[in-house]
């Protein structure tokens, strides 16, 4: 039996006694039902890399994917046995199980009518299977680091004063009005990157001051009542309501239906109400912390998400024994992702800033320690080295590198646009020297597209642009260029003058 199968079987054995309306089934009943459970999983992915994520899902889970109109999302069907594997995907940020999808939702004319429909919807949705998946998933889910809390919400106070079960509709609405700050901000949802940063920020700001001990004793006295929140992500011009209002009214109805407690920061269940123009998807979150937070412990000023690093590496389909270089590595995010996922290749991470090289080395070291602790044995290491160098003069032999994957200074937080006018042509020239003619590839991320295209236009004999992926990096519109090295031999300027290159 595989590790994943074993883990899944154990999970089906977890105690499933829940005082929940829609999953009042016995443990054995749930076990046998769950064995054949088929559900639709939604995943947020770095915008622009939807196809890459779909390819990974098809390759690793054998499931075809639907790429959403709403950028940065994919959907695929799985059976419960594959749930552990879903958490091992490298291209996805957050996961949720779909409760129901409305492809062409007909919004009523007035705000009051629309909000009333949201209230009515809560009681009509097919919650049962998604909640079983949510329950099984709790064992797979990576826990978010808990923060100190600054205030308690009224739901907890009510429970503590014995009023918890008698919450009336007015209280429920008030509760949601007081706590929808995050969903309001999530109106910016179009950009998955922004959405996630804001969610995290709100979580940090609103966490209550109760400490862990107090929290666990509370859970002991009141174990069966689930805490939940609703997050509404809305995108579209034609809505007569805000995400804030939708979350409040839908959330109030969910609370009435399940008799759960609303808790915006310390919740067990996060219900998602995703609205994109006329499309609505109701889901239940399966990740507490984005899956991109996996490799990096020592952050730099412009650390790249591991999921994006994976997408960039995958664009050039690395083959065993390939030599893959990130010549401007920063924290080493790209090379580290490469070394963990393509361990049959050799990865080199370099940077001209000694602080960056240090961070990359520390990140590799933390990852090795983590895997040693997990596996309980000495690790043989990762196929990766770090080095301090200047990209304009790399200590590498001509034609020795198969793939270059790098995240270039945008000229905003890192470097300057003015400096890029010199740096970019020099980078491209040196990369064309070290890259293998005819088969070499480069995947380069930049927001300074004008400067990049200008630099590339002077090197058409050495590089051919085959594909561009448009991505959103923290709200900045950036491009990932896939270049192929032409068969033309590199001729160093000094050789043109009759001198020989030392490499
Ligand atoms: C956008 S950052 C890369 C961030 C990295 N992907 C990460 O996840 O941390 C660009 C990097 O290029 C490096 N850099 C700038 N000029 C360089 C040069 N001439 N040679 C090598 N590295 C350079 C900077 O020090 C910086 O770390």
UniProtKB/TrEMBL annotation:
The keyword Electron transport does not apply. InterPro entries: RlmKL-like_Mtase, RlmKL-like_Mtase_CS, SAM-dependent_MTases_sf, THUMP_dom. GO terms for molecular function: tRNA (guanine(6)-N2)-methyltransferase activity; tRNA (guanine(7)-N2)-methyltransferase activity; tRNA binding. It catalyses: guanosine(7) in tRNA + S-adenosyl-L-methionine = N(2)-methylguanosine(7) in tRNA + S-adenosyl-L-homocysteine + H(+). Pfam families: THUMP (PF02926), UPF0020 (PF01170). One of its GO terms (cellular component) is nucleolus. Residues 145-171 are annotated as: Disordered. Part of the heterodimeric THUMPD3-TRM112 methyltransferase complex; this complex forms an active tRNA methyltransferase, where TRMT112 acts as an activator of the catalytic subunit THUMPD3. Belongs to the methyltransferase superfamily. This is tRNA (guanine(6)-N(2))-methyltransferase THUMP3. It comes from Phocoena sinus (Vaquita).
């Amino acid at each position: 039996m595989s590790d994943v199968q074993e883990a899944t079987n154990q999970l089906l054995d977890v105690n499933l006694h829940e005082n929940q309306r829609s999953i009042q089934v016995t443990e054995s009943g749930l076990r046998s039902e769950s064995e054949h459970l088929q559900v639709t999983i939604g995943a947020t992915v770095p915008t622009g890399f939807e196809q890459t994520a779909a390819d990974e899902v098809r390759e690793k889970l054998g499931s075809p994917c639907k790429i959403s109109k709403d950028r940065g999302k994919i959907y695929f069907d799985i059976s419960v046995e594959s749930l552990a594997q879903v958490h091992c995907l490298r291209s996805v940020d957050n996961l949720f199980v779909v409760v129901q999808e409305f492809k062409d939702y007909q919004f009523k004319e007035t705000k009051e009518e629309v909000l009333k429909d949201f209230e009515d919807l809560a009681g009509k949705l097919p919650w049962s299977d998604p909640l079983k998946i949510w329950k099984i998933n709790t064992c797979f889910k990576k826990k978010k680091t808990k923060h100190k809390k600054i205030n308690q919400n009224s739901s907890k106070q009510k429970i503590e004063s014995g009023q918890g079960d008698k919450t009336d509709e007015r209280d429920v609405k008030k509760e949601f009005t007081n706590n929808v700050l995050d969903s309001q901000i999530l109106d910016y949802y179009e950009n998955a990157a922004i959405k996630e940063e804001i969610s995290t920020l709100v979580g940090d700001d609103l966490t209550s001051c109760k400490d862990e001990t107090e929290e666990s004793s509370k859970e002991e006295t009141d174990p069966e009542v689930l805490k939940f929140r609703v997050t509404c992500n809305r995108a579209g011009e034609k809505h007569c309501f805000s995400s804030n209002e939708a979350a409040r009214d839908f959330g109030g109805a969910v609370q009435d239906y399940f008799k759960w407690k609303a808790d915006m920061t310390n919740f067990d269940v996060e219900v998602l109400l995703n609205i994109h123009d006329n499309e609505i998807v109701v889901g239940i979150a399966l990740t507490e912390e984005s899956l991109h937070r996996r490799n990096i412990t020592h952050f730099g000023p412009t650390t790249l998400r591991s999921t994006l690093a994976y997408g960039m590496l995958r664009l050039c389909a690395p083959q065993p024994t390939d030599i893959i270089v990130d010549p401007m590595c920063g924290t080493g995010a790209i090379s580290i992702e490469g070394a963990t996922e393509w361990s049959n290749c050799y990865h080199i991470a370099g940077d001209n800033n000694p602080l960056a090289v240090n961070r990359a080395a520390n990140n590799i070291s933390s990852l090795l320690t983590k895997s040693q602790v997990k596996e309980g044995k000495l690790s043989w290491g990762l196929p990766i080295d770090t080095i301090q160098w200047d990209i304009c003069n790399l200590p590498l032999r001509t034609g020795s590198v198969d793939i270059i994957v790098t995240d270039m200074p945008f000229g905003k937080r890192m470097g300057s646009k003015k400096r890029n006018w010199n740096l970019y042509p020099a980078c491209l020239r040196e990369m064309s020297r070290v890259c293998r003619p005819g088969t070499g590839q480069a995947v380069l991320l930049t927001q300074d597209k004008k400067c990049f295209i200008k630099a590339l236009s002077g090197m058409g004999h050495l590089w051919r642009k085959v594909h561009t992926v448009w991505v959103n990096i923290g709200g900045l519109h950036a491009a990932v260029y896939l270049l192929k090295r032409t068969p033309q031999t590199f001729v160093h300027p000094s050789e043109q003058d009759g001198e020989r290159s030392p490499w």
